[in-house]
Amino acid sequence: MEHTEILTRYTASFIDELSKNGVTDAVISPGSRSTPLAYLFAENEMIKEWVILDERSAAFFALGLAKKTKRPVVIVCTSGTAAANYFPAIVEAYYSRVPLVVLTADRPHELRDVGAPQAIEQIKLYGDYVKWFHEMALPEATPKMLHYVRSKAARASHIASQGNAGPVHLNFPFREPLLPDLSIDNLWGDQNTQSTAPLMEGSKLIDENQVSQLLKKLKSKAKGLIVCGPQTEDRLAEAITELAAAWRIPVLADPLSQIRAGNHNKDMVIEGYDAFLRNEKIREQLRPDYIIRFGAMPVSKAYLFYVQQHTETFQIVVDNTIGFREPAGNQTEFVFSDPVQFCRILSEQADYSSNPDDHWLKLWLNMNCIAKKQLTTGSNGNITEGEAVRCLLDVIPNESALYIGNSMAVRDLDTFFMTTSKKVSVLANRGANGIDGMVSSAVGAAATNEPVTLVLGDLSFYHDMNGLLATKHYNLNLTILLINNNGGGIFSFLPQASDKKHFEALFGTPVDIEFKQAITMYGGHYEQPKTEEDLKKALNKSYQHQGLSVVEIHTLREDNVKWHQEKWETIQQEILESED
């Protein structure tokens, strides 16, 4: 068997096995050394190929697609710095538990470390930010080696998906010639054979003895609190709210918890806590006996201050597999168990486990009612950043996805996202919390053909404008609410904002760009409303438009800070007066 046929059968077997293990999408960036992978992914009818020119954008596109589908997505690139451009998205995928299968083409061993062009050290390039690395063998087509290549494909897709999902990296050394032969017989191998390495992994379940021990610790504690941070398990919202109703304790629901939206019961849900937990006296009034937390740490810094003020509180963090997400440093008992099953077992033990304090629940509900009243009313004529988010939530379509940017965008969502019966899934890159790759991530989510709205600031938009190319190339529907305060708005809330000498150059960083021109370049529809009513009309119009729609509003950073602070102060003052 000559070289081309060996190369073809080896690579085709790998790709066929990925398909058998549930991979449906591959994001490919152009390059010569990756030709065998690119050609055969494009040829495989079971896997959809997406061609994204810039590797950095491609990796974030795959990240968004994997977040939305909850399936591993493959990314393919050539050798050299192309692979290095994947790094930011891989870091984000690792920390936010998103399954990616990273395939980097490489020079063969004899061309490494000898000055050959486009050859860098790719062995374990991503360090500890991947769950598994494997240097693939040079292509061979013996039965043993075809079994080998299939086993590695099956293992890669399994490791990426199971436990704490995340990226895996396989490095493929290829010798020239690189062009595969797509005409060979039985290109994909025997399609009647089962997957080479069928893998199963059960859920972790808490047993009766463990439940009993936990309930004994909670028996004398009346002031309980459930907290749900960022998470994507579809069934968990209903399970948590059922537990809260059974135990009659409040639920602090992060905007990324998937609890604020949907048709589950929300009677115990507290969504306005970020506004009133900013006050130390209020935090002291709300001293809890215990906290049960699901998901990652909430976005709210006010909540962080709350748990840091009550370090003695008995805290349980529930995760479906081993992980230690407790940045406050408080003493914590970790429960590694299926969170849905955990909630349902505890719901059945409501009479035995706790002694609810009705005054405690009413206290939280009353404070939340005051916060919601202030946050959902009032306008000063010009659109503020918070009001822009509030307008969006009024008109966002049912059964759609909201991809939220970092910095101010996610914090305004935390403040103004009130409970709704709409089914809106909320996605964000809160693993490393960077502003890079936001556009590409949302475009990747939009590749599922479900309505997606991206909310982000001007710096995030500027960082990743080239991500818009995919919307034009694939005619993807995406609405972007661009909040332009001409710089890094979140820094205006920090102490360095008082330093007038260096603040603008180092932190404000205005870009002074007319984004309309870039949006037009990528074939997008653009509007810039001036009032809340016009904003709602523009957003509604965008959902009827095919392709990219960008609705931009302009705000002033200093006015935004003042407006937010006045809202928070009004809420806190009313709460404190009501408790006197």
Automatic annotation (TrEMBL):
Tell me a Gene Ontology molecular-function term this record carries.
2-succinyl-5-enolpyruvyl-6-hydroxy-3-cyclohexene-1-carboxylic-acid synthase activity
Pfam families, alphabetically?
Answer: TPP_enzyme_C, TPP_enzyme_M_2, TPP_enzyme_N
Tell me the enzyme class: transferase
The record's comment on cofactor binding reads: Binds 1 thiamine pyrophosphate per subunit.
What range(s) does the Menaquinone biosynthesis protein MenD middle domain occupy?
198-404
Protein task: Catalyzes the thiamine diphosphate-dependent decarboxylation of 2-oxoglutarate and the subsequent addition of the resulting succinic semialdehyde-thiamine pyrophosphate anion to isochorismate to yield 2-succinyl-5-enolpyruvyl-6-hydroxy-3-cyclohexene-1-carboxylate (SEPHCHC).
Q: What is the protein name stated in its UniProt record?
A: 2-succinyl-5-enolpyruvyl-6-hydroxy-3-cyclohexene-1-carboxylate synthase
| Species whose genome carries this gene | Virgibacillus halodenitrificans
